[in-house]
């Protein structure tokens, strides 16, 4: 993925995703936020939480990157207690994981009730996804061809991702696609075809090359308490009936 992100389509994708993450996390409040993978993208830069971590897979050296503290961990076994994080972002994390279901279960475990998760991934139902599927089919037939997208991982479509999140009691807050330019490899053609981003968002919005999803963790039976009611004051001197009143 690192090498691909340095290519013209990779830079185009990162720029679009950076804008989407900035909008999605800017108004999410709390104390602890976590980004899982893809250090080329600062998905938490617009967020104002005091503690922000970048979790990298084993083999990547931890480092300090601005306000993010990098740590080495497995996304399927996060070193955080239950209900301890307010926000988790996953840029392409599920499709690069050997067990995406377990990664989502871990995210649900570490999120506080009403915590948010923001995910991005490649859309198999797009021009980029169709070109990737064709390249893989030719490879299986023994015809050497270079895939357009990274070979690692399995793409998860937006509909499939919605089903997974709902099974874990997440409520989908927003979901949309982007990057509608065709699967070309040069900056020249990407620039010439930039008009397709506007056309695609209007005429074929579900067929963008990448999708972004925001979901909220809901806990059944949980009720947020408002300010405590003040107890009703009892009069200090209540009237007392006179039982032995003398008759005149």
TrEMBL record:
<dbReference type="GO" id="GO:0008757">
    <property type="term" value="F:S-adenosylmethionine-dependent methyltransferase activity"/>
</dbReference>
<dbReference type="GO" id="GO:0032259">
    <property type="term" value="P:methylation"/>
</dbReference>
<protein>
    <submittedName>
        <fullName>Methyltransferase domain-containing protein</fullName>
    </submittedName>
</protein>
<dbReference type="Pfam" id="PF08241">
    <property type="entry name" value="Methyltransf_11"/>
</dbReference>
<keyword id="KW-0808">Transferase</keyword>
<keyword id="KW-0489">Methyltransferase</keyword>
<feature type="domain" description="Methyltransferase type 11">
    <location>
        <begin position="71"/>
        <end position="119"/>
    </location>
</feature>
<dbReference type="InterPro" id="IPR029063">
    <property type="entry name" value="SAM-dependent_MTases_sf"/>
</dbReference>
<dbReference type="InterPro" id="IPR013216">
    <property type="entry name" value="Methyltransf_11"/>
</dbReference>
